[in-house]
Write a structure and sequence with these properties.
Elements lengths: L19 E4 L2 H4 L17 E6 L4 H12 L2 E3 L13 E6 H9 L4 E7 L2 E8 L4 E2 L5 E4 L16 E5 H6 L15 E3 L10 E3 L8 E5 L2 E2 L21 E8 L13 E7 L12 E10 L7 E13 L2 E12 L2 E2 L19 H9 L1 E2 L4 E14 L3 E21 L6 E22 L8 E16 L15 E21 L5 E19 L20 E16 L3 E29 L5 E32 L6 E12 L3 H5 L12 E3 L7 E15 L7 E14 L2 E5 L14 E6 L4 E13 L3 E11 L5 E3 L7 E15 L5 E13 L1 H5 L1 E3 L2 E2 L9 E10 L4 E10 L22 E10 L5 E8 L23 E9 L1
Parallel strand pairs: 3-6, 12-15, 31-35
Antiparallel strand pairs: 1-8, 2-4, 5-6, 6-7, 9-14, 10-11, 12-13, 14-15, 16-17, 16-47, 17-18, 18-21, 19-20, 21-22, 22-23, 23-24, 24-25, 25-26, 26-27, 27-28, 28-29, 29-30, 29-40, 30-32, 32-33, 33-36, 34-35, 34-42, 36-37, 37-43, 38-41, 39-40, 43-44, 44-45, 45-46, 46-47
Length: 926
């Protein structure tokens, strides 16, 4: 799994095998004392690789239960004050448990095929302690408890959390995760993950089962890199924040977002040879609000030899109505409220047009259990999504806004992977490898340009195609060393490599005025980037209170491609005394080609420490690390016209773009406490302060000047450049989860601090020129209409380099989601369980104070649209299991019909979120 081995000793607290905790009395009194008598004939004798450090006994028992696949019954208070022995190696269940307990006054008895009961023996009375009987099942959220015991910034979204409110968009799954943002375009299902203000071009590794999703196509900079993932196919989402030294960390500055898909084992528990689920959901009545069918089916079967999983899902959405309450929060400049008030009201109360989409996904997995603890698995996952592109235009009568379709898009992502693992009875070997291929293709049908025929700007509709193909290879191994009383060491090391190949084509017939060949066909380039990375991590655990880790990775990349640009430059000639001279009024179009093949490498270290100051429930931690991201194909090779006709916009390449480097550190604390206020309740708290400084941050700078010119900067010219100012992303994250069984709550909040300036030389490639001394004036005669002779004076001057302009740094004029720091954002969920916990109900409050202090003074006519208004949104949900196999879920989103949107990009992203929407879901498990 991505995020390396940080779950080494803490992962056991996830309770993945539904460990049950209970208090026992009379049955325990009769338990025999000698371990040799405790072996039940019903328990299969098998050897299991245990990795459990010495620690408080109650936690060690939970880890043992997870690794052994047992159900353990015990009183957690009974084990207070007791410490376990370290258990590392391959043992049978009985021998392993005996070694773990050591000389502690605790006895055990197998009370079922996969169930063991623990009781504490009183040394003074030589008998078992009699305790009252109570039974408590581990709470739903407990399989994410490892997050609150891991000394780094991690988060997990479980399948149970996803199921509570069936997501309409993949971004909905991340709504309650501190430090995570998403730029959502309501018209399509593409997902772009932003971690702590950082996104795009691989700064965040977005992956499905470890397969990188590196597709990008240029729009208006709100999302330079999207992925397709259907929530119906997701088992869990794991977020690792910051630079990483483990698997998946190559070229990463912001973190890793891993979307883990369903496994056959999830449906084949308890010895079942087949199982699955069927889910069907829809909007309800008039409150369905453009929510149509949403669901699918999963079927799995298998045995000791292997398993198969087959899954299919569909998602249908249509035009929807936005919220209408508290619309004053949107300010007066969005959609020109003050200037076109009638049109603004029409925009607010009308449906959002051309937002219909259809997404279909299918997945097949074949797993084969090989001899000697080996396993191979083949995965095929395909997702296809159709949607429309549209702009909002003021109508001719200025009393409303029309949604005008600009194109139709079909994006398809195919994922193929072959996994192999080998985990024999050897502490030095825990081997995993993956070979994968991801192909994402966007087919777009574009509307014609409606300029008049004699304008020279009209062109017919056309189709274009953009494809990103990624080949990847991963291999890693973990070796574990037990030093008994001196702690345990885990060493994770390996290699990851991937190659992105970008291709594009179209059948556009250029307009008459488009004369800047050969790059008229568009701004999306072709090229190839290859990344390879060697990494290793050391994790050291001493007793229960000290955790250390240190990592070092070496990344190397190669960028290959061709690009160019057409420049109108002054025509120069050699001077009589050397140098160059320029004759005023003479220009020539020069074409420059760049055949790039560049290669570079970088070492990046990380270090972390976690300390528990005398109590097991509190941990302080600190981390420091470096990251490195070389430029992507698009940033370097992008060139041409983003729009047709005689539009002045041009995008220029930058073959000299530098790699980004970051240095980050963070301090945090974890709190994880069970039985805090009541028996068997649990509290998890995670707080972190982070500070990420990025050198040479790449941004799209509009208004650049070009080599060989002395003209004024043209606002329509843009290119990717490196920021000469400090680019810093810092803030504080809060995550809290409390569960007492009947009631629970979850709180998350992200507070971003400061803002950034984006500064670069206007002459980003150099080559600034200026006129020098006058050499001569050429008088050229001509005949006037009246027959008299006139003269044209042509000035010939020196043509000199202009170091002042070359070195001048301009700030501002940036285009993209990083133009403004993301706004603070938080959520609070309060829930309650009834009817023996078969009914789960709750309310969720989502809040953002916005980042637009001058919202009413700031003009939305600019290119960047990263300001967003404040909002307060309430959601209600209920989930009921009338039987163990049937579930009914209801969700009322935006219950107060709030008018809001979350901005992370350009004007395309100004479509507001859905208003009040009621939907339901039926699920049948078998």
């Amino acid at each position: 799994m991505m995020g390396s081995q940080r779950k080494g000793v803490q992962s056991a607290s996830r309770l993945a095998f539904a460990v049950h905790v209970a208090l026992f009395a009379s049955l325990a009194v009769q338990a025999p004392v000698q371990a040799a008598e405790k072996v039940s004939s019903a328990v299969k004798q098998e050897f299991i690789a245990f990795h459990i450090p010495a620690q408080p006994l109650d936690k060690a028992v939970l880890i043992f239960a997870e690794q052994a696949g047992l159900q353990v019954l015990f009183d957690s208070q009974m084990l207070q004050g007791l410490k376990s022995l370290a258990l590392n190696g391959d043992f049978g269940v009985q021998e392993g448990l005996a070694r773990l307990l050591g000389g502690n006054p605790v006895e055990y008895r197998f009370t079922g095929e996969r169930q063991v009961t623990l009781t504490r023996v009183s040394g003074e009375h030589n008998g078992a302690l009699a305790l009252g009987t109570t039974s408590v099942t581990a709470s739903e959220g407990s399989n994410g408890d490892w997050v609150y015991q891991t000394p780094s910034s991690v988060a997990v979204i479980t399948r149970e959390q996803i199921n509570k409110r069936a997501p309409r968009h993949a971004a909905d799954m991340l709504e309650e995760t501190a430090g995570v943002y998403t730029a959502v375009n309501q018209r399509d299902q593409g997902l772009s993950v932003n971690i702590r203000g950082i996104q795009d071009y691989g700064r965040v590794n977005m992956n499905v089962d470890g397969m990188r999703q590196n597709f990008n196509v240029n729009g208006h900079q709100q999302r330079n890199g999207v992925m397709l993932i259907d929530p119906e196919m997701v088992s869990s989402v794991e977020i690792d924040k910051g630079a990483q030294s483990g698997m998946g960390g190559a070229g990463v500055l912001g973190g890793i977002a891993s979307f883990n898909t369903l496994q056959a084992s999830e449906f084949l528990e308890d010895g079942k040879e087949y199982g699955g689920r069927i889910r069907a959901g829809s909007g309800i009545g008039k409150l369905g609000n453009g929510t149509y069918f949403n669901g699918g089916g999963v079927f799995a079967f298998g045995n000791d030899l292997g398993d198969v999983l087959v899954a299919y899902s569909e998602r249908h959405f249509g035009d929807y109505r936005t919220g209408r309450q508290n619309a004053d929060n949107l300010g007066v400049n969005i959609r020109n409220k003050n200037k076109y008030r009638e049109a603004w009201t029409d925009w607010l109360t009308s449906e959002v047009g051309d937002t219909g989409s259809v997404t279909r996904s299918q997945m097949v997995k074949f797993g084969l259990n090989l001899p000697n603890d080996q396993r191979a698995q083949f995965t095929y996952l395909e997702t296809d999504s159709d949607s429309a592109d549209a702009w909002t235009n003021l109508n001719a009568t200025q009393d409303g806004y029309d949604y005008v379709r600009t194109g139709k898009s079909d994006i398809n992502t195919g994922n193929l992977a072959l996994d192999y693992s080998y985990n024999p009875d050897n502490e030095l070997i825990d081997f995993k490898s993956k070979l994968y291929y991801v192909n994402t293709q966007l087919d777009r049908r574009n509307a014609p340009h409606k300029a008049s025929a004699n304008s020279g700007n009209a062109f017919d509709g056309y189709e274009d195609e953009f494809r990103t193909s990624t080949w990847g290879f991963q291999v890693e191994n973990t070796s574990r060393f037990d030093f008994n009383n001196y702690g345990q060491l885990s060493w994770n090391y390996g290699l990851e490599s991937y190659q992105d190949i970008l291709k594009s084509k179209n059948n556009l017939v250029p307009a008459e005025n488009e004369n800047d060949l050969p790059w008229v066909e568009g701004a999306d380039p072709e090229g190839k980037r290859t990344m390879a990375s060697l990494f290793n991590n050391l994790h050291y655990q001493y007793s229960y209170w000290l955790a250390l880790d240190a990592g070092l990775r070496y990344d190397r990349y190669r960028l290959e491609g061709k690009t160019g640009m057409s420049l109108w430059q002054a025509q120069v000639t050699p001077g009589e005394n050397g140098g160059e001279v320029m004759t005023s009024g003479t220009t020539v179009r020069n074409v420059y080609f760049y055949d790039s093949d560049r290669e570079e490498g970088k070492f990046s270290p990380t270090f972390g420490i976690g300390i528990k100051p005398g109590v097991d429930w509190l941990q302080f931690y600190g981390r420091w690390g470096q990251g490195w991201r070389p430029p992507a194909v698009t940033e370097v090779f992008m060139t041409g016209r983003p729009h047709g006709g005689n539009a002045p916009e041009r995008v220029y390449p930058n073959p000299y773009l530098k790699a980004e480097e970051n240095r980050e550190w963070e301090f945090g604390l974890n709190i994880f406490k069970e039985s805090l206020f009541f028996n068997n309740d649990r509290l998890g708290v995670k707080v972190a302060y982070f500070d990420n400084n990025i050198k040479n941050f790449s941004f799209l700078h509009y208004g650049v000047s070009l080599p060989g010119s002395a003209d004024v900067v043209g606002s329509g010219r843009s290119a990717y450049v490196n920021n000469q100012a400090e680019t810093r992303f810092r803030g504080v994250e809060y995550q809290l989860n409390y569960d007492m069984g009947r009631l629970y709550t979850n709180l998350s909040y992200t507070h971003m601090i400061g803002r950034n300036e984006f500064c670069s030389s206007g002459y980003y490639m150099g080559g600034a020129k200026k006129r020098g001394e006058l050499i001569k004036i050429i008088r050229t005669p001509y005949t006037r209409p009246n027959g008299k002779i006139g003269y044209i004076n042509t000035r010939v001057t020196e043509w000199l380099d202009d170091p002042d302009r070359n070195n001048k740094i301009d700030c501002g004029s940036t285009m993209g989601n990083a133009a403004y720091m993301p706004a603070d954002r938080g959520s609070l969920t309060v829930g309650a369980r009834f009817l023996e916990r078969r009914l789960d109900t709750g309310i969720r409050f989502r809040y953002s104070p916005g980042n637009g202090a001058g919202l009413n003074e700031w003009s939305y006519s600019g290119i960047e649209q990263a300001h967003w208004p404040k909002y307060s949104v309430y959601d209600l949900y209920a989930s009921y299991w009338p039987t163990d196999t049937l579930n009914i879920t209801l969700s009322l989103e935006n219950a107060t019909d709030e008018a809001y949107f979350v901005a992370m990009g350009d004007a395309n992203n100004l479509s507001m979120a859905r208003g009040r929407t009621l939907s339901g879901m039926l699920e049948y498990k078998f």
